[in-house]
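Form 7-S
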Amino acid sequence: MDEDDQSALIAEARRLFSGRVEFLLSAPQLQFLPDADVPEVAFCGRSNVGKSSLLNALTGRKSIARASVTPGRTQELNFFDVGEPTQFRLVDMPGYGFAKAPIKVAEKWRTLVRTFLRGRVTLKRNLVLIDSRHGIKDSDLAMMKMLDEAAVGYRLVLTKADKIKASELAETLEKVAIEARKHSAAHPQIHVTSAEKGMGIDELRGAVLADVRS
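Output:
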């Protein structure tokens, strides 16, 4: 894609995300999923990686997705319609890395996520969020392996990039890129973002729009 096409895509994505974005439903179990009738892009990451803040930044809202300091707050698949009529959906997935969750609850979440990933025909891409301050952790690797096995393509998105020095960010980015090359379903482009500062948000919007149209 040349520079003009990329700019046009980003402008269209900005227009779409600034328009109708509405919460559709929460699905605590698979039988509550909405009809698979439009493309979907899912967001996942360790608890407190900044997933809700990133969703809010992408959609230009303050509370389309509720941010929480309590790990494991999101226990369902939350669906958001984008566009009028609906062009695609964003899916907020349960956070993983269940340090404070009961074992049975954590396993229930894993089963829900694993089954959703493997069976959702309209799922175009998954965004795996990685905290820039910590890099890829074992729980992230487990998620990436799950996506590899499910043959679900995913983008790695560094969050909270404003919270560390530029030299540390560059080091984290290099390590993440090296790890990404080991995974069959990982997209080669790594996105560096800050929901608070707006860093990388336009580019990620464009990538989401490109994915749903692929």
